[in-house]
């Protein structure tokens, strides 16, 4: 009996609808996006309507919406109100008023059906309304958890029930964990190349979301009747750590029962189609770019007109005012058909500028249409190999990684004859396909990615192996490395000695490419890669380079402590010092790492360093090295890392391979920014065969030996590269090239002085004499990242980042040659050459970050908008004569302000709707005038200018910012607000009018010939003069005597004049002259800077004798300063480095700067571990000495005049005498790093 009653109560409370009843509800949904702080602008929308639910059958119900009102908000909450949007209301109501059918039984919403013309946006809004009825009520439990489907996907829900004894109604609270849904209604695009970092996410996240539902359920005979329901959804987003301030989205919706009546007549409905269940559906959501809203009807003429307008606006220089319109062009191209694209090609391809703009922007269509468009171009052959390569590279890397597109790309581009028509084009096709495979596996399958997508690359590398074609093997392995497909490991093994089942005898270049092809697999399949790399590393008979590369890849797998210990034990027995030095330096660098991805690895490496240091701690820098430097900030959740690898072997001083990498850590991801690699196989082989006298000290004998070897480069085979280079961006290799014998001979033959009219350089010179013009413009969407998530209202919440750039280079030039060339290029060396040129180089970069609601009919949210502009125009005439070593340039005077560099950004609350696009609102989140409530406004304005009155120009740097500082939140507030930074050149009133600026350089003044041999001898002697006895001294009078003698006996090696010219008046400006004397009198080498003009006597004189001496002012006699350095290592003493700066008189501003620095010295010294004591010291002198105190430490002493005592050791200065602070710092470091450590910990110097 009790069981029957319990079951009855459960049935009464279980939500249900009576198929013979009509239920009328009032629905209100509202969303706001902003900071949630007082006096800051927010944006939002509100939808209010009545909803009728009419029973059709036992489990089928009809929903109709009426009395709809749609409103927008853009302002300060509490001060501004929602504004009605009648046109958009009418549009939405026209669709919502049509009938919607849905299945419903026992609190579960089933299939939703509508007429075919209803848009996906409206269906999702209806899902937000119906979602209230998807609820599980259990009267047998007060608290329970369920995994159930809802509008957010398959997510975990936690319920809590409470019964009201008076009303006999249930209050049901539901919390949905939408951060960890198994099947989340969300999509993520644009960051496939960024590696997830779980350890970073544990320190904080950039997005946190919560949803809470509260129901009032009344038990009835038909089931639980929902009388009232309320939902509150919050999302916190920050480009950094959400704990340090964030943008907040708050969505609320409410459903209130108005009436329940008997259904008299069931409305008739027309044909309907299924639209799926309650889970939010993403259909063509990526087509709508969130930072703009334009009517997209009749796009073809709009695209053609916009391309022509943008091409014209950027025809000479970058037009920053129109660079944002490129994003509009991307949007228009995305809504056009393939047929439209072909029409545009026919219209625009005849004009070079229009053609280039179309090819550069159509790649952002990013689906099957762009592949088919490129297929048509390849098939017709109506694009050049250069155009095809540039277009395909961007198209493949921005293409949506979907199954049908993968198949299309594979079939079309890897098999078309045009793809192989040019080597660089074929390289681009193969490498780009590998990148496409990587992104496809990231988005669609991750580790279970089907092997069929990478099979063409595996076939290509096996075919190269069978034919023993080195280039094909290297290319295919590089593409396989781009793909990072787990199933490729079996094929890669075939190229690795000791790992392959069969013997492997391949060139080192192929082996290197095979090892590096494991780089992405180090993350995707670390255990397999660890097995391979350890096997390679421990084979001591393998080439040194391969073992070092294996070590490098091994540590990218983040090996555990046990594996690091195994490597450490093996290194203790290592005989190859290059392998030992490389591995030890890599382990030592990682031991100091602070980035989250190396959190556990750095601990293991710390242990390894302590074990290996006694044996390898003093290995010479001549051996191979690895360096890893990084930093990470937990507040921002961002960091950077730089790695440099130099791989050598015992056979040559020339590095086999040099690799540099840069990584960026942000919000739980790691992005490999740029990687550059160089191989010197041919050069190394050349030096190994021919060099005989080379000691590595860079003496004259070394340089002479190098020059002799380089003369024999022709002895190398024509197909063997002297130098190879590659570039990877975001971890994907997109370019590699070889510099071989044939290419060098071709270049030398082209530019040789004996080359005649057959040389391409000859035709270039002829065109230059006629006058030439070259222009290049490149619009490029650098990245587009989008994260879209369903909200409880059925509206898509989007977080997007866009970075678009337009780059422009223009060169106009005309040359004259006298006497003109007749038969060979070498005549240029004896002719007078003049050139007149003008042009421009620069770019405009637009960056957007959007957080808010983005649909095809309206948008609201917070938007960061940034613009960076670099503009470098030029105009000058030039004259030169190589034989006479003269060079002249004339620049026009500055007549108008030129902004060379500027950065401007602000954060806005935006509101847009498709019915009234011209009424879009974009309000600064921090308005110009606000009431200060609980926060301060920080508004710095700075402008610093450096005037050059003689030349009539001034260079200015200006900065302005507006910030609000809340005490409890940062670092987001560093970026919230208006910012403007600019560097400009402006005209200024000069002493005399300036027509032009004349620059003259003359290197033919001396009668002494400057040979390469003498230059090397001079460079070699410089350190000897700089390290003479530290006690050497000379008086001011003797110095001036030396200066006078130098002017009397010396001749200038070269002179440079920079003059302001105006008609027939005497020019003004400056002259720089370097004086040369025979080697025996080298102590008197001097550089003099002189002012030119009426009554001008200012000069700067510098001497390069045993001490560096500088004098300046009237005839070099007003001010004087000198610096000496010396080293000493006498028998029985410790190695010592000393330096001293001494001054007699200095300008007042230097005294003021010195005094401003003085007060910081005691505190900085204390932080660096110095201690202070007082002693007598010279009044105008700063000195420092570094002594090798022990084998593992140094002692640093710095003497300063008149230093305030450190607080913890107060010792007043004695009256009438100067004081000295003596600081000693012991740094426990390796002996060979002593000098480096000294420079890293040296203090700033002070001039008083």
TrEMBL record:
<dbReference type="Pfam" id="PF09175">
    <property type="entry name" value="Vit_b-sht_shell"/>
</dbReference>
<dbReference type="GO" id="GO:0032355">
    <property type="term" value="P:response to estradiol"/>
</dbReference>
<dbReference type="InterPro" id="IPR037088">
    <property type="entry name" value="Vitellinogen_b-sht_shell_sf"/>
</dbReference>
<dbReference type="InterPro" id="IPR015817">
    <property type="entry name" value="Vitellinogen_open_b-sht_sub1"/>
</dbReference>
<keyword id="KW-0732">Signal</keyword>
<dbReference type="InterPro" id="IPR050733">
    <property type="entry name" value="Vitellogenin/Apolipophorin"/>
</dbReference>
<dbReference type="InterPro" id="IPR015255">
    <property type="entry name" value="Vitellinogen_open_b-sht"/>
</dbReference>
<feature type="disulfide bond">
    <location>
        <begin position="155"/>
        <end position="181"/>
    </location>
</feature>
<dbReference type="GO" id="GO:0005319">
    <property type="term" value="F:lipid transporter activity"/>
</dbReference>
<dbReference type="InterPro" id="IPR015819">
    <property type="entry name" value="Lipid_transp_b-sht_shell"/>
</dbReference>
<dbReference type="Pfam" id="PF09172">
    <property type="entry name" value="Vit_open_b-sht"/>
</dbReference>
<feature type="signal peptide">
    <location>
        <begin position="1"/>
        <end position="15"/>
    </location>
</feature>
<dbReference type="InterPro" id="IPR011030">
    <property type="entry name" value="Lipovitellin_superhlx_dom"/>
</dbReference>
<keyword id="KW-1015">Disulfide bond</keyword>
<dbReference type="Pfam" id="PF01347">
    <property type="entry name" value="Vitellogenin_N"/>
</dbReference>
<feature type="domain" description="Vitellogenin">
    <location>
        <begin position="17"/>
        <end position="658"/>
    </location>
</feature>
<dbReference type="InterPro" id="IPR001747">
    <property type="entry name" value="Vitellogenin_N"/>
</dbReference>
<keyword id="KW-0325">Glycoprotein</keyword>
<dbReference type="InterPro" id="IPR015258">
    <property type="entry name" value="Vitellinogen_b-sht_shell"/>
</dbReference>
<protein>
    <submittedName>
        <fullName>Vitellogenin 3, phosvitinless</fullName>
    </submittedName>
</protein>
<dbReference type="GO" id="GO:0045735">
    <property type="term" value="F:nutrient reservoir activity"/>
</dbReference>
<keyword id="KW-0597">Phosphoprotein</keyword>
<dbReference type="InterPro" id="IPR015816">
    <property type="entry name" value="Vitellinogen_b-sht_N"/>
</dbReference>
<keyword id="KW-0758">Storage protein</keyword>
<dbReference type="GO" id="GO:0071391">
    <property type="term" value="P:cellular response to estrogen stimulus"/>
</dbReference>
